[in-house]
């Protein structure tokens, strides 16, 4: 049976995880995984290093992002933010994630939006 972890955070998810991309790939190798995803929150900072580390270990990298979204208010209360997992299916999908990540990181109140 081949299993792929899809919701994986690295050190690039600030205050959310501590492993380096190399440590994640090493663990995937130890677990005998053929593929692994990297889905840091609202950013793609580790994507290139992750892809290189996966290539060196002969593991299929899946690049994505856990996007923080705010659901609409229900009456007077605002629900807590949710996480939407997005994975790039191809180079066009990766470019779309890059644009989305850049827009998030470029917004003046990005810290407020990420809560």
Walk me through this protein's architecture.
Strands 1-2-3 form a 3-stranded mixed β-sheet. Helix 2 (47-56) links the parallel strand 1 and strand 2. The longest helix has 16 residues, at 91-106. It has helices at residues 21-30, 47-56, 91-106, 110-113; strands spanning 35-38, 60-69, 82-87. 35% of the residues lie in helices and 17% in strands. The N and C termini lie far apart (37 Å). By secondary structure, the protein is α+β, with helices and mostly antiparallel strands. It is elongated, with a radius of gyration of 15 Å.
Number of strands: 3
Strand content: 15-25%
Low-confidence region ranges = none
How far apart are the first and last residues' alpha carbons, in Å? Answer: 37 Å
CA radius of gyration: 15 Å
Helix content: 25-40%
Total helical elements: 4
Mean pLDDT: 85
In spatial order, strands of the major sheet run 1-2-3
Written as H for each helix and E for each strand, in order along the chain, the element string is: HEHEEHH
Outline type? elongated
- The helix/strand class is alpha+beta
Biggest sheet overview: 3 strands, mixed
Short key terms for the protein model shown above:
3 strands, 35% helix, 3-stranded mixed beta sheet, 115 residues, alpha+beta
SSE diagram, text form:
Elements: H1 21-30, E1 35-38, H2 47-56, E2 60-69, E3 82-87, H3 91-106, H4 110-113
Parallel strand pairs: 1-2
Antiparallel strand pairs: 2-3
């Amino acid at each position: 049976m081949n299993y792929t972890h899809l919701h994986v955070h690295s050190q690039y998810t600030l205050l959310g995880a501590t492993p380096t991309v190399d440590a994640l790939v090493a663990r995937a190798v130890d677990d005998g995984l053929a593929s692994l995803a990297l889905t840091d929150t609202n950013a793609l900072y580790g994507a290139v290093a992750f892809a290189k580390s996966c290539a060196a270990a002969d593991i299929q990298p899946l690049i994505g992002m856990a996007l923080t979204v705010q659901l609409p208010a229900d009456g007077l209360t605002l629900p807590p933010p949710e996480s939407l997992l997005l994975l790039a299916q191809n180079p066009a999908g990766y470019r779309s994630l890059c644009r989305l990540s850049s827009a998030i990181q470029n917004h003046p109140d990005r810290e407020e939006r990420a809560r």
